[in-house]
Amino acid sequence: MENLLDAILNMFKSDEIRKVVISKPSAKSLEYKKISAEKKGTYYQIAKFTETQVFHENVGEGEVAERVYQLLASGFKQLNAWSDRFEHMILLSKKGQSTFKKKALKEQTPVSIDAKHNREKNYLIKEGKPVEPLVDMGVLTPDGRVVKAMYDKYKQINRFLEIIDDEVVAFQGKDIKIIDFGCGKSYLTFILYYYLTEIRKIPATIIGLDLKADVIEKCNAAARKYGYTGLRFEVGDISQFEASLPVDMVITLHACDTATDFALYNAIKWDAEMIFSVPCCQHELNKQIHTDNLSLFTRYGIIKERFSALATDAIRANLLEYAGYKTQLLEFVDFAHTPKNILIRAVKRKSTSDSVREKALQEVEDVMREFNFNPTLYSLVVGGETLKGLVDGNCCVRAPHEKD
Description:
The protein is of the alpha/beta class. The chain folds into 2 domains: 2-109, no CATH class; 169-392, Vaccinia Virus protein VP39 (Rossmann fold), CATH 3.40.50. Helix content is 39%, strand content 24%. The chain is built from 14 helices and 14 strands. The protein has a 7-stranded antiparallel beta sheet, covered by helices on one side. Strands 10-9-8-11-12-14-13 form a 7-stranded mixed beta sheet, sandwiched between helices. Helix 8 links the parallel strand 11 (249-256) and strand 12. The model is unreliable at 107-120, 334-338 and 384-404 (pLDDT under 50).
């Protein structure tokens, strides 16, 4: 395989590679079915595709060649790579022998290949029809074409809608009522309203909530401009907000730290059918974490920070399971291109067995004991007396959830 590594290193050194596709897995049992790497300014974004999911990682320009070699050598038979001028191809035989090819491109480049792929993909918001909020955002031209420089944002918006669409298509209500916590400038809220009312033809009422009065004023003005009569925005605190209507869906995107916990708790209290949350700034557990048995996770600052953030969302997911939701943690490419790329999707179950609820809660409590965690969502959902017992190391009866 040394010749293979040399060939890949030379390929990146001699040509400005824009895109790489690794394909043809040698065995059906391989976890990833296809892998791609695309140049994004000063780094490459690698996407690893399973049958149902895609996982991303970013690598620097100086590291990408060796990483591509590792991925190709993990069980794949073919690599294609494109620059503006050439297509490079590597074929691997069953015996591990390598064949290298290189040909000049005539008309197409990786950029045009990507653009064609984006246009052909069956996005929920299709190119060719102007959507006023997207035009104002600069994603679409006035005649509905995607602005070339905004294709990433166009794809990200559609990805967000696809995650929601999976559950909306199964929704049984005649109309849908949604609370959007921490809505900010709300361009996703406007797109969600458009998707529900214009694409799915579902009457929708959406309330966007944020602390910034000037932002709320601008959002309400935009809703009036677009004629979105079922969409309004209010100034309010997530932890104190009281819904004035039955709630079918709660959305919280980038609510900072424990604001996400209050949003999730409100969703549980209101018996919301669907919850979609992209947490942000999970500082709470990072300040609390302490363990004698697993101090490896706290020794290095960056590991401590990331482990605490992942533990925060794992605990949230289990507490939602305890509260009667089927919960998934999905990789979601963030709109600001930050590492905060986990989306919590929770859908209310018709019924949940006591054993499932008890197991979900026990797993949370085991982690709390081991790492000295005192998570806000636990105290909100389960109750203060149980939390005190855990901290003191005593056994106690769990406080019943108010919805049980």
